[in-house]
Amino acid sequence: MKSLFRVTLLATTMAVALHAPMSFAAAETAKPAADSKAAFKNDDQKSAYALGASLGRYMENSLKEQEVLGIKLDKAQLIAGVQDAFADKSKLSDQEIEQTLQAFETRVKTAAQAKMEKDAADNEAKGKAYRAEFAKEKDVKTSSTGLLYKIDRPGTGEAPKDGDTVVVNYKGTLIDGKEFDNSYSRGEPLSFRLEGVIPGWTEGLKKIKKGGKIKLVIPPELAYGKTGVQGIPANATLVFDVELLDIKQPPKADAPAPEKPNAKAAGAAKK
Length: 271
What we know:
seven-stranded antiparallel beta sheet, 7 strands, 2 domains
């Protein structure tokens, strides 16, 4: 049980380190056999096969993820370990299995950390170069915080301010053009309090008004920084095209209720 837990923990660590979602499903759905019904005598056999197939696909994907870290495990030995375990003929004692997995977990964590640090450094350098080139384009401005922006359409009325709720349509990409979010594709604008998002957005949206459109190139320190989030790597420079559809001001505090007239005055008013 401890070994199974350790393997699960190890797989989770690798998935997080590589920003890859854990799933027993294969990246591409395998084509079913021509007559899958004939291959199984009952549902128990079919379920057992499905469990094995899912485990096999998961382990295959895990091996590929480890190769990204520079660790190449022997697939034949992995299969042999599974077969020997089922036959109760393991070449390693429980203690040896535990010690080996502990050492392997350390190797994976070390390799994952080294890869993250290298990727973060690469992202920082590439982002800096991208921002330098973008800054040369016509009508691009750079704020004191390092935010780069280009106003395509200024809009009309007042600009939003902290406390306001804004409604926007937007597309977000990495500097290589890889899209990570798009409200146009979802068919639904996003609504949020202006100060409730990354600093680059809070600052950038204040530069346009309702109906305006702006391109934002946001350095990592105004986005997700040195850690990143799912789908956005560490030290990533982000590119957004944003349309400000609406601005909703916070409700004003209720005004004090007027004094009620006394009974005599009310009666007089009715007459």
